[in-house]
Design brief:
Layout lengths: L2 E11 L9 E2 L7 H12 L8 H4 L2 E8 L2 E12 L8 E20 L2 H12 L24 E2 L3 H7 L12 E7 L5 E4 L5 E4 L9 E7 L8 E11 L12 H9 L3
Parallel strand pairs: 2-5
Antiparallel strand pairs: 1-5, 1-6, 3-5, 3-7, 4-5, 7-11, 8-9, 10-11
Length: about 250
């Protein structure tokens, strides 16, 4: 089955999985809900629209640059409390990844992937890297991103995103599929769907699988497998991509 590759790179990214109220976390790599949100924006879909076709795609991520975990401390003054009496000050901690770069793959039907790739070239809405204001640079669109290879092969075989050689082994994250799916209700806004993957599978749980339109904020559990790609096995570009040269020039490199 073919794979669509896209590049998620920018000065700030945040991929929350359990963010609530005053603490907004970030996962160490892009979440499926975050990536599908970006695709839905590119396609021009509203939050009430069906995204089941996008949710059925299998996701993989290659971490080309981990970035640095940072926190944006914010305060808000004069907030009305639940008691309705007086005003209070509110603090919040919003975590994000600084200067990270990810190669993301989506495996699925070619017709859908072709449509998504075209939308990334001319997105309907502004694209964000997990949080409004965190814009990508360079763009997620890759001209050679639609591949005939399956997900893992495409992620392993695509050239390293940065101009330099990798300094460490790269983390590869692959979605693990299993069926049938069972469902457990966890909270009024989150339904946890647990697939019968055994503990011996050595996989990791992530709460980021959309199971309804984004407006309903319903997410399920999926499993991912994490492996390392030796840095010597990562292919490099023979010539740097034009957009990467532009980014380096803007950064003064």
């Amino acid at each position: 089955m073919p794979t669509l590759l896209l590049r998620l790179q920018g000065p700030m990214q945040s991929w929350g999985t359990r963010s609530r109220f005053d603490h907004r976390d970030t996962w160490p790599y892009p979440t499926k809900s975050g990536v599908l949100g970006l695709l839905a924006a590119a396609l021009g879909r509203d939050r009430e629209d069906d995204i089941s076709d996008l949710a059925s795609l299998r996701l993989g991520v290659r971490v080309d640059k981990r970035g640095v975990l940072r926190v944006d401390y914010q305060t808000a003054q004069g907030i009305l409390p639940a008691s309705g009496k007086g005003k209070v000050n509110v603090q919040s901690w919003r975590y994000y990844l600084s200067d990270a770069a990810f190669l993301v793959g989506l495996e699925g039907p070619r017709d859908l992937l072709q449509k998504v790739q075209e939308s990334l070239l001319n997105p309907r809405y502004v694209l964000y890297l997990g949080r409004k204001g965190y814009v990508p640079s360079p763009p997620p669109y890759l001209g050679d991103g639609l591949r005939d290879e399956p997900l893992e092969e495409a992620l392993r075989g695509y050239p390293y995103l940065l101009a330099q050689k990798p300094q460490e082994d790269l983390l590869l994250v692959l979605e693990v599929r299993a069926s049938p799916v069972t469902e457990v209700r966890a909270s009024p806004v989150t339904e946890v769907r647990a697939s019968p993957v055994t503990e011996a599978s050595q996989v990791r749980l992530v709460y980021d699988q959309p199971i309804a339109p984004f407006a309903k904020r319903r997410f399920g559990v999926r499993y991912v497998r994490e492996v390392l790609i030796p840095k010597e096995a990562v292919p490099l570009r023979s010539e740097p991509a034009k957009e990467l040269e532009d980014v380096d020039q803007q950064a003064g490199a």
